[in-house]
Each structure stands twice: as C-alpha cells, then as structure tokens.
Amino acid sequence: MFDTMTMTKIVGGFCGAFLIFLLGGFFAEFIYHEAESHDGEAHQAYTIAVEDGGTEGGEAEAEVPFEEVFAAADPAAGERLFRQCQACHSVEPGKNGTGPTLYGVVGRPVDAVEGYSYSGALEEVADVWSPENLNGFIANPKEYAPGTKMTYKGLPGVEDRANLIAWLDTVDN
Question: 113: domain range?
C-alpha cells in the first residue's frame, strides 16, 4: 500500500507546508516589526494615528474619599474578603497566629495585643487602628509601615478595603 514514492510525497508535502509557514512568519515579522532607519534609530514600521492623546475611556475618574466609601461599606462582603487574612490572623480574642488577633482591631491601639511580638514599625506610623489607618495599611503594608513583619502584598480595591474594615468593626460587637 505505501511504497517509497508515496512516502516521499507525504514527507515532501509536510516539508513544503513547514517551509511556507516559516516564510510567512519571516515576512510578517519583516512587515510589522520595528525597522531601523538610516540614522540608526528604531521606529515602528506601522503606526496607528490617534486623534486625542488623552486617557483611555475619556476623563480620569475623581477618586472618592475613603470616608464616603467606608460609610457605604458592606460588612457581609468584608467577611468573604477576610478569607485571605485567615492564613495569618484570627478573630478570636487572644488567639494569635502568624499575625496578631484582629478581634476588636478597629479603634484599638497599635501594637496592643498581648503575647504578640511586633516589629515596632507600626508605632512610628500610627497610634490607633482607625478605619483610615487600617485602610492605608491594608492597601500596601510595606509602603505604609516600612519594616513591618507583615508580608501581605496589599488589597488594591478601596471598596474591598472598606468592606473588610467594616466587617472587622462588627466582630467585637
């Protein structure tokens, strides 16, 4: 059924198809990739003219103050967000994990949990865990309190932070 001539045709067909794909890729790269001009500077071979150099989607949104977002926060959504924190923190009184217990954290003095050894970086930044201080810390702990032991990268969404802090505020009744 398969003789030498048939096998040669099949292999030749695959090699020819592969050669066409290679040449197509080469020409596409040649057409659309950066090309060097005579002065040695690289420039885009094909550019799309844009009428307005403004931001994408029109005007930039004005940032809403945290106090307004916190006033409309949803504690139930914050409870779901706390799952990220459970690896290191608990909300049971006196139960420390890798991080201190967060029971009653809103309004509590910074570095005030008995039996937990803090790094000392937090005392330099704040005295009390107000919602605003918690917001800054949860957004980016390393930037807010350089030298802190907390290795969490931060929670970027202001609504998420407000929801989490609102839930933490309800934990101690």
Answer: 73-171
Residue 113 within a domain: yes
**Would residue 25 count as lying in a domain?**
no
Q: What is the pLDDT of residue 12?
A: 96
Name the nearest CA neighbour of 138 among 105, 109, 93. Answer: 105
Query: 85-109: buried (b, 16+ CB within 10 Å) or exposed (e) per residue?
Result: beebbbbeeeebeebbbbbbbbebe
- d(CA 161, CA 56) in angstroms, rounded, equals 26
Query: Terminus-to-terminus CA distance in the chain, angstroms?
Result: 84
Q: Higher pLDDT residue, 41 or 126?
A: 126
Residue 156, SS3? coil
Residues 81-115 have pLDDT tens digits of: 898 888 899 899 888 888 899 999 999 999 888 88
Q: Is residue 30 part of a domain?
A: no
Residue 82 maps to which CATH number? 1.10.760.10
CB 91 within 8 A of CB 101: yes
- Take residue 83 and report the two structure tokens written for it: 């799952």
Q: For the chain, how many structural domains are there in total?
A: 1
The beta strand positions in the chain, using DSSP E, are 35-36, 42-43
149 is a domain residue: yes
pLDDT of residue 131: 93
